[in-house]
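user: Please review this fold.
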Amino acid sequence: MGWSSESDSSEFYAFEPERFLIPPMEGFLRRMFGAPWGLILVSGPANINLGTIFSFLANFSLQQSYYSEISTESNDFEQLEKEKRKLVTIEEVIHEAKQVLQSSDTEDGADDPEEREWRSHFRRNSDIIFIKHLSPDVVSTAVENALTGNLVAAGIRAESSFTALKHLQELVPREHLVAASLMGIIALNTVNRICPHCKIRIEHQLTNDDMILFGQTENAVHSHAGAGCKECNGTGYKGRILIHEGFETSSKIRTKIMQSLPLRQLRILAKREGMETLLDAAWSLVNAGETTLDEVTRIAEATDPGGNDPKTQ
């Protein structure tokens, strides 16, 4: 399964799988790719190569194949052979399904045999379907398969989980289909890394607006910045860091999606349920001395699901 045709600027950041495989993200990924069916969105802006992420997720999902156990009268357990999961792309699914349809005898026309064969083919042959870009051409196929026994992972260009959800709602205008099919969203973004050669410590006083924007209760912040040097061409930054968040559709969130709850309020609900956002990830990098408050401000503004749209307020 190859994704190399996608162009990006990933040479400016390093994909670090170990950042994904720590709590709570590891548990989130296990729940997503351990599920028997549903839609998982993988989102990021144009400067992120989602192909690299898909390759990682494909390998991760293969590790989620499970062992079945049988209890015996002596309370011993026999471990059966590890089940294999089949990974395919949407192009492969459509191509194979068309071959099935072409070989089917549909002249009698009874009870939509083409549709029956199409659906049974999907359920029989595909465990996880990967879609590099969730376009209007394939979204109905993706949702249908997510609701009929397959796990579907689809890429979508967005700045955060909630802007990705907004795009999905535009592609699938029926809220009950979005709520029923969506398992969760893996959202990625990047922040600029402070140049290690000219990093300096600074004290910063947050304004009241900044405290609200960042969700902070203290206005005094100890942070770092790059003074600018030859190594970073005077910018104060050298490279970028990939950050991520995981949005999981709990039963309460599904209900609120069906009720068309504005996205900002949906984000508040997700935070109350324990979600760690891209803004939280960026702020943790400020505390670690790896990025700046300016970058946190950029992430806060870029990932705001409301923007100037009153419907999302």
